């Protein structure tokens, strides 16, 4: 049975893409200005000057300064009274490092109630043997996607409060995500969904995966509805929970939320030849795919916001 997109009706941007016949028309592309900024954000964050954004390095500070500036420019406020920064300690390889998450908020039209947390890690591997690992796809692309979500929700305010977290220390073992769920600033019980972006920009077959509907089947009809209008192939899977090679349940920051029994959706591409290589540069990103991928995840976040009470209710949260 073809799923008619009843879930989309409330989403102004998404609904605009639907024909009156009920057949689904493709999503409109990102607004032109947002698409330009999306590419600027990836280009800047994966520039050699950022030195691969390893935690507790000058390059990391430079990346954070840039992301903070962008959040302020968009109009995102800090979630904590203390500001955007959420510092935490990383113990890795016998060393103590200092990581920093950036935590922002876009208030919902409804006060209180359920919130959605959108995450993307900004750290990468740094410099090894004199080579800079720029991490353009992994995960400058996810941070740029998070900023595109912020642009959309600032322009058309969300129903629910949206928390945006640029995470540090992912490559050292999901450290920033663990630090955030240990100190979520709002009670964990209010978080109805985590949407995590990690590698949005590159796939030879034009495919993006959404993982999370196997443990949380309530998400499947929503993801099906987005897939029906997405300008790329949005597939579901890699979420069996077996923690084997094919399963991404514990492969990125959403795992910290999964362990707290919070529903999650992870958007990402399959590994590619540049994965964790010094060649993961801006120049190797197929820009048309990335813009289409970003339009897809923005639309998904808008739909999840519209449906957050149903999702939270069905999930018993
Ligand atoms: Zn990553």
Give a description of the structure.
With 317 residues, the protein is an alpha/beta fold. The protein has a single domain (28-314), classed as Zn peptidases (Aminopeptidase, 3-Layer(aba) Sandwich). It has nine helices and eleven strands. The strands form two sheets. Strands 1, 2, 3, 4, 7, 8, 9, 10 and 11 form a nine-stranded mixed beta sheet that branches. Strand 2 (85-92) and strand 3 form a beta hairpin. The model is unreliable at 1-13 and 15-21 (pLDDT under 50). The structure holds zinc ion. The site of zinc ion has 7 residues, from helix 4. Zinc ion (ZN) is lined by residues 121, 138-139, 170, 198-199, 252.
Number of H- or I-type helical stretches: 9
Number of domains: 1
Taking all residues together, what is the mean pLDDT?
A: 93
Q: Which of globular, elongated, flat, extended, rod-shaped describes the shape?
A: globular
Instruction: Provide the β-strand percentage band.
Output: 15-25%
Under CATH, the homologous superfamily reads Zn peptidases
CATH architecture: 3-Layer(aba) Sandwich
The whole-angstrom Rg is: 18 Å
Query: What ligands are attached or bound here?
Result: zinc ion
How is the biggest beta sheet arranged? 9 strands, mixed
Instruction: Output the helix-strand order.
Output: HHHEEEEEEHEHEEHEHEHH
CATH C-level? Alpha Beta
CATH third-tier fold name: Aminopeptidase
The amount of helix comes to 25-40%
Oligomer: single chain
């Amino acid at each position: 049975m073809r799923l008619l997109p009843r879930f989309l009706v409330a989403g102004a941007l998404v609904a605009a893409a639907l024909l009156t016949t009920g057949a689904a028309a493709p999503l409109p592309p990102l607004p032109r200005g947002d698409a330009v900024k999306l590419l600027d954000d990836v280009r800047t964050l994966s520039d050699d000057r950022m030195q691969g954004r390893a935690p507790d390095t000058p390059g990391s500070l430079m990346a954070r300064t840039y992301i903070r500036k962008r959040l302020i420019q968009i109009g995102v406020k800090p979630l904590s009274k203390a500001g955007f920064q959420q510092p935490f300690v990383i113990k890795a390889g016998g060393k103590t490092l200092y990581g920093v998450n950036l935590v922002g908020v876009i208030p919902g039209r409804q006060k209180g109630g359920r919130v959605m947390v959108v995450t993307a890690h900004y750290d990468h591997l740094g410099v090894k043997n004199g080579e800079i690992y720029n991490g353009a796809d992994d995960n400058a692309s996810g941070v740029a996607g998070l900023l595109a979500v912020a642009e959309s929700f600032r322009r058309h305010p969300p129903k629910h409060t949206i928390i945006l977290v640029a995470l540090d220390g992912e490559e050292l073992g999901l450290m920033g995500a663990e630090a955030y769920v240990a100190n979520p600033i709002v009670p964990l019980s209010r978080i109805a969904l985590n949407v995590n972006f990690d590698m949005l920009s590159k796939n030879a077959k034009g495919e993006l995966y959404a993982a999370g509907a196997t443990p949380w089947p309530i998400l499947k009809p929503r993801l099906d509805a987005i897939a029906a209008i997405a300008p790329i192939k949005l597939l579901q899977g890699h979420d069996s929970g077996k923690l084997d090679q094919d399963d991404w349940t514990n492969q990125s920051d959403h795992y910290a939320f999964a362990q707290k029994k919070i529903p999650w959706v992870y958007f990402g591409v399959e590994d590619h030849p540049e994965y964790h290589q010094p060649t993961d540069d801006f120049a190797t990103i197929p820009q048309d795919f990335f813009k289409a991928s970003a339009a897809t995840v923005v639309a998904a976040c808008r739909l999840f916001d519209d449906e957050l009470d149903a999702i939270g209710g069905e999930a018993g949260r």
